[in-house]
Amino acid sequence: MPQKKTPYFELRSGAVDTLHFVVKTPQLDTLRTELTQRFEATPEFFAGDTVAIDVRRLAGGERVAVPALAEMLAEFRMKPIGVVANSEQTDWAVVEGLPRLDSHERRISRAPRESEAVPEPAAEPAEAGPAQAAPDTGAIASTIIDKPLRSGQQVYAKGDLIILDLVSYGAEVIAEGNIHIYAPLRGRALAGVKGKLDARIFCTCLEPELISIAGIYRTGEYALPPDVQGRSVQVRLVDDKLIFEPLGLK
Question: Where is the composition biased (Low complexity) (predicted)?
Fold first, then answer.
């Protein structure tokens, strides 16, 4: 039949930007323990995010129960939309309700600096390079990131975290200490994630998707006051409430 143009809908090819939950063990109990430990301080961290279950890192004979894994991810408020698998895994990995997805990963990678180290994220994004984290050497050093963080990338620091470039929408910066961002923050920033109540976030251009200190958070759904939106700001916690204060930077 000839195609007739309509003003009411269009069909176009496109690509969906989603996180990959890269499975490296078939042990569901181990995965649950790791997920709980990682996100117990930030239960809203992946709330509502879509993920693709990526099983390509499993060893040759290993299989994971994909339906049970999908249910587990849903408990952590992620939304599985499909499975990324190689041809040998298709017969067991692709199940009803979770179609096989093609993944064209574009990695942004570089050799990590000594001051950077990022633990591998539980959900590895399609457009993210490997995350890096600060080394544990007794006195915890600050982690310094001097490259822009793109959508899907994540950085975790055991001490303070210093960002010298843009944090894009969909990027996430997490620290057990303070976070300093000398550039626009358009993604998510979570400081004091192990319960450090006096942690602070400093930013020279605040436009966040989410701000959190010690598990108390505020999302970008609620507009910030004009005197802090897009401006130089410090964020601190007072009586379980986030306080946004302008910084007198010229």
Answer: 118-135
